[in-house]
């Protein structure tokens, strides 16, 4: 009731309903880690189409398998990606600089990230400012030229009325650090110095400027304290799938896959593991190599983390835009992540991203063509296969996690079951934050049951669970049985949520019988 009733009359009071809608999280945000032509190093950047990737990370580049994987992701239906560029080399010595002459000393700018791309930068200074009497003011134009030809302007940034005085709100160091995608200040202007007018002052690349060496597992794993490599994703609120395209010319080590799978388990995400190229290099031993390889991979990752990993075989053969569209071999992680995203959008995360609908785009063949018998050897081991069928074409023909081997009898055998569980876990984790510090008694428990029950009911109506009724499909329990008086004394509220997952119809058995006589209709 109102705090104070003072005058005779009508008082209005709003009573909380207790309804706090739980919204489901995204299911197919895909993180990529690898080498790129340009872009920030060890920083997670979110992109939503390949044009954004090209603007930020330089587009397709032969040494960058990640650039191809990201392109495959968007070509197969992906719409939301997070990219982490790693760099193997001395970033400072590999970063181009631009020296702008000044009345005293110089203003030295440097490219925003290491790589030869910085050698294509060009700067222009003029003093056509709003206050020509103020010599500290100047205009700065930064142009990025075509890296190949070096003549055509690809992109341009213009900064008007910036100042060399550190007390000015438009101090050049401050403006460039916050607004420029191309450059930042390496050496500031001396006190009282002003940059001279200059036209087409080209970046001084220097002999040390390069694109770094081929990346290794060290750059991928990074440093947990410095938040580099895979730990750059710590700054990301949510990602669902992780792709680590193979390096050129090396493969990702099993120990790296193991640490990546462990990280995905902590972040409630799935790791897509690529098959080594050596598995299908020899056609006569491809299946036996895959059999032994998936076993060693699962042993390296461990069953605890392998529930958050899925492996696919073989690799894809696709036209390579960087090699006159001749067929090249590519890791399947980007394309598979795109198919998962497409399936989630069309059917839901509980639908297995496999079958006739899970078709590839622009993939004429695989590095190895599997038969039914060979597929039958690999599927019981938890290795998902790609198949080629007449009319339907090339499709994903398996949807198991790395603990999906029949002998393990894991409850997380199937990929859609695991991904559905992760979706529910992440959604409820975020949707129940309001519970913290609330009075721990029956009114709170009733609100919890109401809100989580509404979320689960919505999933049931979308067809996410087994069962003919909500009672058969899920349960939400939060009462005196789950939360005892001792739990209350300890400040704990226990919520039990169960669901009956949909499992894919992996094997379809059709029984045909010959009838002995005439059947009356």
Automatic annotation (TrEMBL):
Tail sheath protein C-terminal domain mapped to chain residues: 410-513
Domain of life, per lineage: Bacteria
Regions annotated as coiled coil: none
Tail sheath protein subtilisin-like domain boundaries: 239-402
One Pfam family here: Phage_sheath_1C
InterPro entries: Phage_sheath_subtilisin, Tail_sheath_C, Tail_sheath_structural
Family: Belongs to the myoviridae tail sheath protein family.
Protein name: Phage tail sheath protein FI
Annotated source species: Crenothrix polyspora
């Amino acid at each position: 009731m109102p705090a104070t009733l003072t005058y005779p009359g009508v008082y209005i009071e709003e009573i909380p309903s207790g309804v706090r809608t739980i919204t489901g999280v995204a299911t197919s945000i895909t993180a990529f880690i690898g080498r790129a032509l340009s872009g920030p190093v060890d920083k997670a950047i979110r992109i939503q189409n390949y044009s954004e990737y090209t603007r930020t990370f330089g587009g397709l580049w032969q040494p960058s398998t990640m650039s191809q994987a990201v392109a495959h992701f968007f070509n197969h239906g992906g719409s939301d990606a997070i990219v982490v560029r790693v760099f193997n080399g001395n970033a400072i010595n590999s970063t181009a600089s631009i020296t702008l002459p000044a009345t005293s000393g110089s203003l030295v700018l440097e490219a925003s990230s290491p790589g030869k791309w910085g050698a294509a930068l060009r700067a222009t200074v003029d003093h056509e400012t709003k206050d020509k009497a103020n010599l500290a003011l100047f205009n700065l134009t930064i142009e990025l030229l075509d890296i190949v030809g070096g003549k055509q302007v690809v992109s341009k940034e213009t900064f008007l009325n910036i100042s060399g005085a550190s007390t000015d709100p438009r101090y050049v160091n401050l403006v460039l650090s916050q607004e420029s995608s191309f450059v930042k200040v390496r050496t500031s202007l001396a006190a009282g110095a002003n940059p001279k007018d200059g036209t087409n002052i080209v970046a001084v690349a220097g002999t040390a400027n390069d694109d770094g060496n081929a990346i290794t597992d060290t750059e991928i794993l990074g440093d947990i304290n410095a938040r580099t490599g895979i730990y750059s994703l710590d700054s990301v609120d949510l990602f669902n799938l992780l792709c680590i395209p193979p390096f050129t010319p090396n493969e990702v080590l099993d120990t790296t896959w193991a640490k990546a799978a462990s990280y995905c388990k902590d972040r409630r995400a799935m790791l897509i593991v690529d098959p080594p190229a050596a598995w299908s290099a020899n056609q006569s031993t491809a299946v036996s190599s895959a059999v032994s390889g998936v076993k060693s991979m699962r042993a390296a990752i461990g069953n605890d983390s392998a529930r958050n990993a899925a492996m696919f075989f073989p690799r894809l053969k696709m036209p390579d835009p960087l090699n006159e569209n001749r067929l090249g071999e590519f890791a399947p992680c980007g394309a598979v992540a795109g198919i998962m995203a497409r399936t989630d959008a069309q059917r839901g995360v509980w639908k297995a991203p496999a079958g006739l609908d899970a078709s590839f785009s622009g993939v004429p063949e695989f590095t190895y063509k599997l038969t039914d018998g060979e597929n039958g050897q690999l599927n019981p081991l938890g290795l998902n296969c790609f198949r080629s069928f007449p009319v339907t074409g090339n499709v994903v023909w398996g949807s198991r996690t790395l603990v999906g081997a029949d002998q393990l009898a894991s409850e997380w055998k199937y990929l859609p079951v695991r991904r559905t569980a992760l979706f529910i876990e992440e959604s409820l984790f975020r949707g129940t934050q309001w519970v913290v510090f609330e009075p721990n008694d029956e009114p709170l428990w009733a609100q919890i049951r109401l809100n989580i029950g509404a979320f689960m009911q919505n999933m049931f109506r979308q067809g996410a669970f087994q069962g003919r009724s909500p009672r058969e499909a899920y349960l939400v329990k939060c009462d005196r049985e789950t939360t005892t008086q001792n739990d209350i004394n300890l400040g704990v509220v226990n919520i039990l949520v169960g669901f009956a997952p949909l499992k894919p119809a992996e094997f379809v058995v059709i029984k045909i019988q010959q009838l002995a006589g005439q059947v009356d209709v």
